Amino acid sequence: MPQQVDKILIEKFLQGTCSKQEEERVRIFLKKPESEVLLNEILSANQTKDFALFEEENVPHLKQAKWRNAINLRIAAENEKALPVKKRFNLKYAAIWAALLIATLSVYLITHFSKPTEQALTFIEHSNPNGQRSKITLSDSSVVYLGAGSRLRYPERFSANKRELSLYGEAFFEVTKNPKKPFIIHTGAVRTQVLGTSFKIKAFKNKPLSVEVATGKVRVDKVRGNKIESLAILIPGQKVVYFEGKATTKDIEISDVTGFKTSQLAFRNSSLSEICETLERWYNVKITFKNQRKSRDRMTLTIDATVPVNKLLNVLGAAGKFHYNIKNNEIIIR
């Protein structure tokens, strides 16, 4: 009586730990129609397991290149063995091998997600003009603190298997934990992915993109079509800055990240020009420099953006040793 092929044996085959006899049993099984049901079950189970591993893993680096090479070699080796057995090419067998490749990738990679089917979802777009901020509660009870001059696009209700939205600008996220539904934020070609954590994203056009983490673990990838490039896996107190094709990771103060919720704006060795760009968004004002050299002065400070702009400029002027004139919404620093 032939031995049964089960999930454990399929997993061993995917990982390359089968004996020759077990590999032959699996290849024979894959030609049978009932193999598709088992492969689909493994694919679904492994996706959930891999996301849980990503959240709990303490090593902040996944050896993706090594895994991809191992998968490619594995599939190539199995195809070479299978070719002499049968000269006639069986389309059904090819379809099963395609399903096997998808299952294999799900075991080793946690970065492959299909795009949402927008026809089945109703989307909401929330835009803040300069000078306005807002707090948004999503359908899963996650909270988004959307900054001034920023835009968030999200579904009225998330899909069954993931929580996906798009951001332009700046926002702080407090994500409700759900290991079965990853939370994904798209900012142009960069994708930030979590299960449940709190973090801040800043993504304005033609400016460096940054992701800062307060709690949990966050994965940041660059996505171009089907090609995914890992930029960083961040833990609390870490930040990645991506600009002009280069990603840089650094340590930060967690209070600098969480302070965004209460309008506390932290600047670390930032130019006065960069600080004023932020103030323009938060206060809906136009700031110009009479002396451009002054705009390059660098400062480290935390600003309370709940106070009137003139009081804030008094404090900033004392620290930066400058004077200013203000008329309506126009400010000149001299």
Automatic annotation (TrEMBL):
Entries under Pfam families matching the protein: FecR, FecR_C
Keywords, comma-separated and alphabetical: Membrane, Transmembrane, Transmembrane helix
Domain Protein FecR C-terminal: 265-333
Domain of life, per lineage: Bacteria
Stored InterPro entries: FecR, FecR_C, Ferrdict_sens_TM
UniProt GO MF annotations: sigma factor antagonist activity
PANTHER family per the UniProt record, alphabetical: PERIPLASMIC SIGNAL SENSOR AND SIGMA FACTOR ACTIVATOR FECR-RELATED, PROTEIN FECR
Protein name (record): FecR family protein
Organism: Pedobacter miscanthi
